[in-house]
Amino acid sequence: MSVRVRFAPSPTGPLHIGGARTALFNYLFAKQHGGTFILRIEDTDQVRYVAGAEEYIQDSLEWLGLVPEEGPRTGGKYGPYRQSERKEIYFKYALQLIEHGQAYYAFDTPEELEGMRAEHEAAGETATKYDAHIRMMMRNSISLGEERTQELLAKGTPYTIRLKVPHDQVIGFEDTIRGPVNFATAELDDRVLIKTDGLPTYHLANVVDDHLMEITHVIRGEEWLSSTAHHVLLYMAFGWTETMPKFAHLPLILKPTGQGKLSKRDGAQFGFPVFPLDWHDPSGEFFQGFREFGFLPEALINFLALLGWNPGTEQEIFDLNGLTAAFSLDHVSKSGARFDFDKALWFNQQYLLNADPERIATLLSPMLDHRGVHVEHQYLIQVCTVYRERIKTVSDLTKATEYLYGEIPEYDTDAIGKMWSAELATHFQTLAGLIETESDFTAEHLRVLITSYVKSNGLKMGNVLQMLRTAISGSPSGPDVYQMLELLGREKVVARVISFAARV
Ligand code: GLU
Q1: 459: phi > 0 → left, psi -120 to 50 → alpha, else beta; which?
Q2: Is 264 one of the annotated active-site residues of the chain?
Q3: In which element (H, E) is residue 163 found?
Q4: Would you say the C-alpha torsion 208, 213, 217, 218 has a positive or negative sign?
Q5: How confident is the model over 66-100, as pLDDT tens digits?
Q6: Angle at 91 between CA 85 and CA 96, to 5 degrees
Q7: What share of the chain is helix, strand, coil (3-state, %, to 5)?
Q8: Predicted TM-score (pTM) of this structure
């Protein structure tokens, strides 16, 4: 039997980082077993549907390199892959459960349901649920009988279809990550399967689709663990237990403080992205994405992989192929994984170190354009070659290299105060003249010229170089100063050194 896994997001908003991690683990598991990674869009909840979310989810997966083999964009023989296009299927299966006595019609109005809750609360019961005990006191096809049910149906009375949860049983399943999980049916309600609008609930659609799409493993977030009880009951009710998928519930992703689940608000609060790509919410809110923040997708993948999984060795850097080889659900932890943005930046830095400067330039270019700065591509490649070792994100470059395209944004006056002197000012005037007449304006020649000047005049190398950097860029720190000089070009260098030398 070949492995088939699915990532099944609901398009109720953009794909958050927890969803991306779920997609990644499904992808890795599929690849590792020579199986199939499927994308299924669970869009039956009309109320929570958000326009643009589905596109966003698919674009994000593609950016991350987690391209599904089957899904709404690619198609496949188990389609359609959007639940809203499969409505009739669910209804048919719900009727099948009714026929087999595993589900029933419930005609209770919202007021009646509310009344039932209020009555039980008044009697001192706290959590009242529609279950085997309450069932007979409500208006449904079990309490009313066949004839009355048919009458109500014929009249077009609104109804839901509920799962008939068995009274007082203990049912269990084996979670690959958590081990045996047991639950008492006495704790569960007769969950709604079909809503009054005729659409299925998540539980019914999810189980029917996993069955029809021949899903072998369900790998999803911990928040779905409690729903699995109803899912297992559904497999039993349908008689599908033989082919029931194996379940694996991934640990939560926690806030940087380690307290509670990471939310989109945390991104705003701590100043980091929690979505792969920029997201303009229909409510008018805007959330910056990892891509636009200046992350490379492979760095984000590497970071996500280690949120809840560890290779069992000291190795930290993994590309998708490396992950595919090393990944195992056995090494996924049960406890929550803390979101550490500094670690994400560290991964990005590692990948930028070895990234092709041309690729970095291509990513940087639109960021500069956005700031109204248009830089020639070949030149930008040279800039990225010099700077790639010094940055954590591509967008760091917009600020760090600003001095190259326009004026110096600001001078580090503290550093100047500490290192600058009248004596150095005189030397800088002389140096400006030497630099101006240097026949070969390359980093190599400038290095020879300046180091020999510093030595023969008995100056402190560190001071001169830091002030030279400050003279041309505003800041004493940066990459190799000779490369900075070469990048800036003779004319600007000379003008800036002369004007800097005028400071006393
Ligand atoms: N539609 C659910 C979600 O939004 C799917 C959960 C599952 O994978 O079963 O995450």
Answers
A1: beta
A2: yes
A3: strand 160-163
A4: negative
A5: 999 999 999 999 999 999 999 999 999 999 999 99
A6: 140
A7: 50, 10, 35
A8: 0.93
